[in-house]
Specification:
- By secondary structure, the protein is α/β, with parallel strands linked by helices.
- The protein is 45% helix and 11% strand.
- The protein contains eleven helices and eight strands.
- The strands form three sheets. It has a four-stranded parallel β-sheet with strand order 3-2-6-7, with helices on both faces. A two-stranded parallel ribbon has the order 1-8. The chain has a two-stranded antiparallel sheet with strand order 4-5.
- α6 runs antiparallel to α7.
- The radius of gyration is 22 Å and the shape is globular.
- It starts with 6 loop residues before the first strand and ends with a helix.
């Protein structure tokens, strides 16, 4: 019988971050943007590893701004493009060394995800120009390595939106758990799929339904390579952002299940017709997560949550007091 509780992760996930996005004044102009203070107390749920390829390249602060020339960051590694500063001087070899130094740091820290600064020719992933109307030549030099290494990548700007950050966080936790959970048998596949299928249906319903049918048709002799492919495809799907409409629909669907299973109402959660902003919706989602953990009900759209040992102990003591 499937375990119908949330998956609770008690170990803090290690997140790499572009140092300038953590408020470090390491940009070429000596500035930085603090993107994580807005998370409030939640930022202490993670361990942060700030890195800056351009600083590790020895380019200094302040410095001449740099740009990709002749191609994107991937082409730089193939020696088909280069990196120059504003004076036209090549800094490509130094920047490569800086990128490798940062990557080594992330690996030593056992980083699971990276928060990148789009617009940077080094850390940018989907944009390497600070000009809003230009994408530049993405990915950047370091961004190319991040993609190659398969990190769970989060744009720093999305931390400013409560609903976008909630979406990234719940998918990161699921990604981290799926990356480490043991999958050896058909029973393991069923157990993992039970936890993740509702989130996967929200992200890509057609794919999730098809995968569900495939799993249902399996016998005890799994096809060769199936487990590896199963994990790989789900990890790729969990990188895919949802949207506000799908998230709110999933919230109400799961809340209806919660009410049916527990006979309880959550006053902070409003009906689908109620007009509210994204900050309110994010608060409702967090409240739903907490209630699901307390009442041991799977909140399928956010199946993996983080709780430190202190909070878990307090929850157990509360349950004991209630009998």
């Amino acid at each position: 019988m499937a375990d119908k509780n949330q998956v609770i992760v008690t170990e803090k996930i290690v997140i790499g971050i572009s140092a300038c996005s953590m408020g470090c004044p390491v940009r070429y102009d000596g500035k930085g943007t603090d993107s994580i203070t807005i998370l409030g107390r939640e930022k202490t749920d993670f361990i942060w590893v700030p890195v800056c390829p351009e600083c590790m390249a020895g380019l200094g602060v302040p410095r001449e701004s740099v740009h990709l020339s002749g191609g994107d960051g991937t082409a730089v590694w193939l020696k088909e493009a280069t990196v120059k500063n504003r004076k036209g001087i090549e800094v490509v070899e130094a920047l490569k060394l800086g990128c490798h130094a940062c990557l080594d740091t992330l690996k030593r820290a056992k980083v699971s995800a990276f928060i990148y600064r789009d617009g940077s020719p080094s850390c940018g992933v989907y944009r390497t120009s600070m000009r809003s109307q230009k994408r530049g030549n993405p990915p950047g030099v370091f961004g190319s390595l991040l993609l190659e290494q398969g990190y769970f990548l989060i744009p720093a700007d999305d931390l400013q939106s409560p609903i976008k950050w909630w979406d990234w966080r719940r998918r990161l936790l699921a990604f981290h758990w799926l990356s480490t959970v043991r999958i050896e048998t058909l029973g393991d596949i069923h157990a993992v799929w039970y936890k993740l299928k509702f989130l996967c249906q929200e992200l890509d319903n057609e794919y999730a339904r098809r995968l569900g049918r495939t799993i249902a048709s399996l016998d005890k002799r799994l096809p060769e390579g199936f487990i590896e492919q199963f994990r790989k495809e789900l990890l790729q799907l969990l990188r895919k952002p949802s949207n506000l409409k799908r998230i709110t629909q999933s919230l109400w669907k799961n809340y209806a299940h919660y009410r049916k299973a527990t006979g309880k109402k959550i006053d902070e959660i409003n009906s689908p017709e109620f007009q509210r902003n994204v900050t309110t919706i994010a608060k409702e989602l967090v409240k739903m997560e907490r209630s699901a953990v307390e009442d041991q009900i799977l909140f399928g759209t956010s199946p993996v949550v983080y709780r430190d040992e202190h909070r878990l102990r307090a929850l157990r003591e509360k349950k004991e007091e209630q009998g």
